[in-house]
């Protein structure tokens, strides 16, 4: 017996405390820190984390992307771009998407580690979602966001985080990152030196709102942005990274810089003179992980110069080690619930079906003259599919994308949806530049119907450097479609005469629809719809599903009423503060069917701060097709200076068959109606008269109910 106990004791002693999965994470982190030298600690503070062989710590690359599918890591399901997924107004579906993404991520990680591969983009720490507010349609990266509204962004972003991180009580499935913190939405060309000037009210109510929501929903990481806010670079901004994020909001994950952002502090912002001082300032402000090499190269120098202490380093390293422990990096892999995911979890039929469903719900029907859509297949023996984006891979997969062997473009989707006796032709039609030479116009005139796929692509709008054909560093100078496409649509209209001409527009943001609207009988805004976009478009064109996407941003008539692009003041921006003319309002989207609303319950006449405004709405499908409706609830505030015109505070999607009725319940906590008081620097609930407005867009008022709020 004694010999057996001795063997057990010896074996147990050989397992370091930090590898004992039965211990608390904080105690394991503390133990591991005690075993690391200061040089080893510093070597772990960069995204290319160095191996510490004597402690069994492998090298790890923290940089991974999963904006709308596992990106840059080989075969993976490509879902619609983020702005398109937001157009679904379906947070439950978005959580299904991010759950599929995290499943594929775990599988690819397991497969790579099994071959002792520790590659960039094959890890488990994802720098997504992008929850910056799409405040101006010129911003090229707006396509990566969930739109212009803080509430919608907070809801969709939180759903995405929950699916990425999983619901296991002990282990993270993957780690999500809320980016870019904060007040970051262009201009792209000057992001490395730009100073966003913003007052406390806009900062709190608009730019920080969604970040706070994700922190409340336990996002594991936050990424600091390139720009300055009121003179201070985000990556050394103690007020944001420590005072608000950690102390006020209680964030307990890790903070990572955007890539090269610390270099910008002394090279472009020039707010500090040397990299050594930047290294010290970043850690003291609340940065834990550096997506560059400054902390690893200059951290030791900062300590030697007395600008930083080992205790400061320990605090930063503790945060990223906690994430590693939550991911199970130091535990027996077999104990992890995600260890069994393998090749059959990547890009499988279930994920392809999900990508198709999301693409269906993302596409927005903007026009349907005389109900020309949907097409009845038996009525069309020949179809022309034409346009520069009809067979474009870029227009399907957007930016921050993965790769797929099964992308179905628009030509392929339409071709695959009709029988073999139907003639389908394709022609490029035009390019993005030439306004005089066109193809396919004669063939279009010879067909029963024409589908023209035009719009933008990720090389015309996107991130600085990536959108290499953009004339303004990734951003758009204006809302115009390429002049060549407008001229092409005019020629098509002449050729097809009175036959149906459907315009399908790909883009990641607001574009001037009016330039081509007179020439199209119907217009579908398809965003960048992912690898199943062609099938999803065919499903809508031929009526297998009714379109149900809604715009997550305002489509302005033009930009003449908008403030200067570099102005971060929210006055006269987005549906919340803009009172000028629009093409299509926030939340807009047509259907093949119609819906009628009646109140199922009445509001109380008055509410107090601890109450919840709850209402049930009976929705009836009164048209001729099955379809989905998105019931949107907006609040109109008392007439007080700087209150929004109106504000989305709840929404719910409901699926209804023809002539069927269903009920949705919408709840708005009165606490969510607080606004920031500049005098007291606190949130304040303003007493007075409010309105609840229910409809299918921000401009639709199907039902209106008045109520008061008292102290």
Automatic annotation (TrEMBL):
Q: A single GO molecular function, which one?
A: alpha-L-arabinofuranosidase activity
Q: Which GO terms describe its biological process?
A: arabinan catabolic process; xylan catabolic process
Q: Which Pfam families match?
A: Fn3-like, Glyco_hydro_3, Glyco_hydro_3_C
Q: Which UniProt keywords apply?
A: Hydrolase, Signal
Q: Does the keyword Signal apply?
A: yes
Ranges of residues in domain Fibronectin type III-like: 629-698
Q: Which family does it belong to?
A: Belongs to the glycosyl hydrolase 3 family.
Q: Under what name is this protein listed?
A: Glycoside hydrolase family 3 C-terminal domain-containing protein
Q: Which organism is it from?
A: Mucilaginibacter rubeus
């Amino acid at each position: 017996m004694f010999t057996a106990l001795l063997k057990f004791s010896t074996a147990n002693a050989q397992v370091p405390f930090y590898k004992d999965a039965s211990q608390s994470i904080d105690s394991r982190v503390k133990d591991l820190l005690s075993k690391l030298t200061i040089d080893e600690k510093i070597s772990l503070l960069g995204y290319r984390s160095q191996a510490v062989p004597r402690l069994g710590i492998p090298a790890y690359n923290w940089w991974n992307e999963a904006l709308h599918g596992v990106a840059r890591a080989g075969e993976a399901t490509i879902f619609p771009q983020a702005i398109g997924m937001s157009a679904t107004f379906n947070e439950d579906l978005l959580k299904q998407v991010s759950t599929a993404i995290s499943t594929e991520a775990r599988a690819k990680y397991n497969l790579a580690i099994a071959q002792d591969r520790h590659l960039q983009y094959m890890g488990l720490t994802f720098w997504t979602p992008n929850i910056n507010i799409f405040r101006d349609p010129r911003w090229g990266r707006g396509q990566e966001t969930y739109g212009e509204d803080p509430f919608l962004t907070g809801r969709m972003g939180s759903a995405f985080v929950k699916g990425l991180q999983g619901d296991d009580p002990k282990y993270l499935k993957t780690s999500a990152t809320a980016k870019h913190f904060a007040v970051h939405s262009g201009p792209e060309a000057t992001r490395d030196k730009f100073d966003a000037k913003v007052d406390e009210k806009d900062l709190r109510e608009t730019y920080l709102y969604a970040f706070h929501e994700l922190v409340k929903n336990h996002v594991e990481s936050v990424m600091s942005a390139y720009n300055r806010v009121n003179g201070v670079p985000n990556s050394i901004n103690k007020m944001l990274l420590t005072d608000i994020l950690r102390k006020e909001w209680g964030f307990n994950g890790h903070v990572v810089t955007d890539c090269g952002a610390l270099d910008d502090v002394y090279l472009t912002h020039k707010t500090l003179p040397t990299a050594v001082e930047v290294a010290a300032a970043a850690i003291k402000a609340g940065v834990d992980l550096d997506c560059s090499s400054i902390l690893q190269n200059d951290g030791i120098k900062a300590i030697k110069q007395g600008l930083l202490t080992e205790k400061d380093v320990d605090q930063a390293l503790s945060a990223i080690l906690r994430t590693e422990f939550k991911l199970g990096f130091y535990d027996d892999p077999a104990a992890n619930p995600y260890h069994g995911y393998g090749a059959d979890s990547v890009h499988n039929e279930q994920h392809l079906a999900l990508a198709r469903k999301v693409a269906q719900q993302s596409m927005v029907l903007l026009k349907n003259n005389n109900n020309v859509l949907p097409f009845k297949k038996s009525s069309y023996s020949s179809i022309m599919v034409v346009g520069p984006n009809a067979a474009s891979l870029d227009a399907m997969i957007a930016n921050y994308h993965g790769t797929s062997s099964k992308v179905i473009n628009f030509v392929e989707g339409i071709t695959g949806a009709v029988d073999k006796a139907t003639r389908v032709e394709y022609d490029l039609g035009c390019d993005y530049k030439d306004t005089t030479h066109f193809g396919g116009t004669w063939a279009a005139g010879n067909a029963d119907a024409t589908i023209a796929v035009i719009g933008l692509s990720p090389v015309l709008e996107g991130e600085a450097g990536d959108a290499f054909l953009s004339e303004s560093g990734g951003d758009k100078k204006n809302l115009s479609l390429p002049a060549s496409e407008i001229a092409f649509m005019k020629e098509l209209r002449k050729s097809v005469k009175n036959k149906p001409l459907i315009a399908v527009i790909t883009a990641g943001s607001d574009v001037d629809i009016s330039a081509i609207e007179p020439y199209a009988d119907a217009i579908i805004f398809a965003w960048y719809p992912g690898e199943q976009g062609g099938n999803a478009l065919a499903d809508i064109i031929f009526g297998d599903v009714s379109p149900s996407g809604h715009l997550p941003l305002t489509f302005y008539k033009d930009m003449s009423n908008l403030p200067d692009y570099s102005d971060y003041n929210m006055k006269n921006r987005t549906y919340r503060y803009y009172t000028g003319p629009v093409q299509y309002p926030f939340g807009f989207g047509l259907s093949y069917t119609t819906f009628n609303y009646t109140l199922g319950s009445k509001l109380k006449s008055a509410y107090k701060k601890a109450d919840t405004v709850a209402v049930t709405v009976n929705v009836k499908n009164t048209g001729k097709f099955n379809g989905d409706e998105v019931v949107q609830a907006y609040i109109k505030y008392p007439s007080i200076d700087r209150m929004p015109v109106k504000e989305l505070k709840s929404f719910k999607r409901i699926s209804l068959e023809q002539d069927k009725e269903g009920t949705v319940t919408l709840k708005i906590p009165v606490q969510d109606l607080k606004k920031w008081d500049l005098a007291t620097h606190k949130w304040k609930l303003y007493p007075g008269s409010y309105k609840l407005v229910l409809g299918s867009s921000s401009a639709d008022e199907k039902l209106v109910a008045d109520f008061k709020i008292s102290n």
